[in-house]
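As a next step, we paired sequence with structure tokens, yielding the entry below.
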Amino acid sequence: MIGLKIRILQIFKFLFFFLLLVLQISIYSEGYCQKSDSFISDSLLSVKLQLKGIAAGRIGDFEKALSNFEQLYQIRKKLYGTESYRLGPPLTNMGIQYKNLGDIDKAIEVYQKAASLYIKEFGKDYPGLGTVYSNLGIIYGLNGDNIKALEYQKYAYLVLKKDSVTTQKRSIDMAFPARESGAITENQAKNAKVTTL
């Protein structure tokens, strides 16, 4: 009898959290349902494309990863418009894949597009910009522009340090790669100016 009561409580607990999740999804997707008759299937397709892109990138199939992220970008562009901040994550992931494929100019282009969408929606202190700026710093470093790479890494640090959760998870020595390679001096690393897009 006690086992049955516990089982019934577990079922009610599961149903409660499931309904809470559905409610949260519907709240965060305001406007989405107006543009799409199949919210659930579109959401599941987006998640599927995101996960497939990440998995393909991790095993080195950068073309397949890029294809998945481009499809995700097109879906979100259709649903939210060309100026939505929701395009930022697929653009950032596309930038990673372009870098992996050696197309540095295209990577810079999509990172800068993601940054401009985030700034437009959230302002210059949005933590998501830290990741974009850090990735831009890496790209410029790979391209041999170590001063610009350091500037972006410093800006990434300034944005990320305002977000205590992200900062606690990361330890950034922005100048380490450039100093270690001899591309810049210790003095240049200290005096690099922070730029904005």
In short: Residues 29 and 187 are 48 Å apart (CA to CA). The chain is about 75% helix and 0% strand. The chain has a mean pLDDT of 76. The first helix runs from residue 2 to 28.
